[in-house]
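Weekly structure sync, notes
Attendees: PL (lead), two postdocs, one rotation student
Agenda item 3: pending single-chain targets
PL asked that the sequence for the first pending target be pasted directly into the notes so everyone works from the same version. It is reproduced below exactly as submitted, 178 residues in total.
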Amino acid sequence: MVSITISRKAIEVILHDAIQRDITTARRAALLQILWNERYLTRAQLISRVEYRLGGNCFGTSAWEDTFYRDMRLVKRAFQAAGYQLEYSRNREHSGYYLCGKSSLSSEFRQMVKASAAEVDQRQIDIYRQLSCAARFRQGSAISDTARNVVAYRILQENPSLTPQEANRMALERAYTI
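Predicted structure, written out during the meeting:
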């Protein structure tokens, strides 16, 4: 491989284009980003998070396990190239993929959790506790869907040539790009 020095921004533009055009690159980039921010995620949890971003069956309908493990081998190599070691823990308390020497959440995620906790209103929590699990789930899903739809609508307004599905995918990507 020929080594060239080029700006990180230029590489990011090319990578972003590849992510938009190629589902394999999109899956691998999503796995890399998820594992950078969260640790101790199992295969099922990672697949669920990636499918939420990219759509169901993005790993394929047959041989999806092979696809996942091929993706993870490359993600592991990417972390190694950056000086990190991705491992898998089978410990009951902390099972799943993790980066050696890193805490369960990235500092960015921890700050988001702290900021969110500071905004909690105890009266609202008391109201939610009175709701059934199904009602809480429906309400949370509706809020999440509405927020994503607002972002997708704004993306469509800015880029009228996009399809609604492309705008929705971009909205999901923005939600996970931190």
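Discussion points:
- The first strand starts at residue 86 and ends at 90.
- The helical segments are 8-21, 23-37, 43-54, 64-81, 107-118, 122-130, 133-158, 164-176.
Action: rotation student to compare against the earlier draft before next sync.
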